[in-house]
Amino acid sequence: MAEVGKGVNAGKLASNVQKRITRAQEKVMQKLGKADETKDTAFEEGVANFNKQLADGTKLQKDLKAYVVAVKTMHECSKRLHDCLAEMYDPEWFGKEEVDSIAEDTDLLWQDFHQKLTDNALTSMDTYLAQFPDIKTRIAKRDRKLVDFDSARHHFASIQKGKKKDEAKIAKPLTLVEKAAPGWAQGIITAHQIAQTNLSRNQAEEELGKAQKVFEEINYDLQEELPTLWNSRVGVYVNTFQSVAGLEEKFHRDMGKLNQNLSDVMTKLDEQRLAKKGVKTTSTEKSEEAANHSLSESGSDVPKSPQKSREGPPVSRPPRPASSQEVKEDNIINLFEDAVVPDINISTQSQNEAPTVTNGSSDAELPPSVLYKVKAMHDYGATDSDELDLKAGDIVLVLPFANPDEQDDGWLLGVKESHWLQNKNLLVKGVFPENFTQKL
After folding, report:
1. SS3 10
2. Rounded Cα distance, 403 and 317, in Å
């Protein structure tokens, strides 16, 4: 049995060697133009698409693997960073348990992201590329069977062309045999030669049929599969990148929440540190300002005066250019102030008094430069020479600034109504905080 096995293997090996020699000879003949080569343009285009698709898929798989490795590296770096924070975080600090919980959730989130990338993207890409080696092997086999088919076709054609020559070769020996051989031998010789010719022709035809059948079976399957495989790449790319994008979006959204929670813990820890030093944080100051503003509107507490932007000693503001009518009125008032006016009591009401309305303000005629009136709701002590002292209940005539750029936010310019009623001029004016007053 062993000898039979060896003989079978040796015979198969010799057959394969003979096939390779025949294919090599056929390729040489085709390149030299002495043999026709079967061409299939559509199939060649399909093979070109196959090779491109294989190269693109291989590159995508390689880059996707590198991306997953990078995610694993980022996971390890993130874990070491949170472990470092946990080691440095004193147990008595604010949010110790929450910091540990955030570190644990972050680690789980990285693990989940890495695992889903591997399952949904990388594994499906591996499955997609697993079909290419088999098809590539079958394409190579088709090429070999096509050479065998061309070789058998050319061999059969050569036999067909040489048929007449063989008949002529058979006829020549007959003339010689007629002289030397008896009559009964002439028929045997002719039959033998014809049989040999027919045998070669039949063998060539049989080999051609076999080669053609094998080639057409492989060729038909590949003609069906290659276009289908080429079109499948769109769905693979869509599913891969949709999966990666969706996983990234969810990962970063959940990671953003954890990072925000960690940032809040750090903020509160810093606030406690500052509170121990007696330092108010920015958020606390804003809360106090909002509360003071609410109290000033309700009148339940004294508001905080706004900060003036200018620094250093107060600088007197230049007077606003007066209109011609105001100049005439001021000149007339100054003339009368210089003259001696006798005291004439023509009514029970004093000259300096004027009719008042329910809000305590006088309804006497005011100069046109007055914008409106306000009433002081709280006492205000002037801190600069250009400010007005206010007592709760004082009425102030609000005036425009000569230069609007000099006005600070939250401050108004005005003259007390009592001064106007007594002196009929607007010379004693100053600034005051708006939130200490209420507009009438």
Report:
1. helix
2. 8
Q: Give the three-class secondary structure for 167.
A: helix
- Angle (CA) 322-326-327 rounded to 5° is 80
What does the pLDDT look like over 241-267, one tens digit per residue?
999 999 999 999 999 999 999 999 999
DSSP 382: -
Burial class from Cβ neighbours inside 10 Å (0-12, 13-18, 19+) for residue 363 reads: exposed
Position 61 scores a pLDDT of 94
Residue 431 φ/ψ, nearest 5 degrees: -95, 155
* 152-174 pLDDT tens trace: 788 777 777 766 555 555 555 55
| Rounded to 5°, angle at Cα 172 from 167 and 178 | 120
Listed in sequence order, the residues at least 6 apart from 305 whose beta carbon sits closer than 8 Å to its beta carbon are: 380, 410, 433, 435, 436
Quote the CA–CA distance of 12 and 16 in Å, as a whole number: 6
Contacts of 232 (CB under 8 A, 6+ apart): 128
Alpha-carbon gap, residue 222 to 99, rounded angstroms? 60
Annotate 418-438 with DSSP letters as a single string: HHHHHH----S-EEEEGGGEE
Q: Return the residue matching tokens 């067909």.
A: 160
- The SS3 call for residue 372 is strand
Pairing between strand 437-439 and 430-433? unpaired
**For residue 233, which of 40, 436, 51 has the smallest C-alpha distance?**
51
Would you say the pTM of this structure is higher than 0.90? no
Q: Tell me, what DSSP letter sits at residue 120?
A: I
Helix-strand-coil split of the chain, %, nearest 5:
70, 5, 25
Tokens representing 11 are 């015979």
Query: What does the DSSP 8-state code read for residue 370?
Result: -
* Alpha carbons within 13 A on the beta-carbon side of 122: 16
Pairing mode, if any, of strands 411-416 and 395-399? antiparallel
CB 245 within 8 A of CB 116: no
**What is the C-alpha separation between 78 and 75, in angstroms, rounded?**
5
Tell which residue, 281, 304, 285, 309, has the closest CA to residue 294: 304
Instruction: For tokens 């591996």, name the residue.
Output: 126
Paired tokens of 350? 């004093």
Measured in whole angstroms, how far is the alpha carbon of residue 49 from the centre of its chain?
31
Query: How far apart, in whole angstroms, are the C-alpha atoms of residue 211 and residue 32?
Result: 23
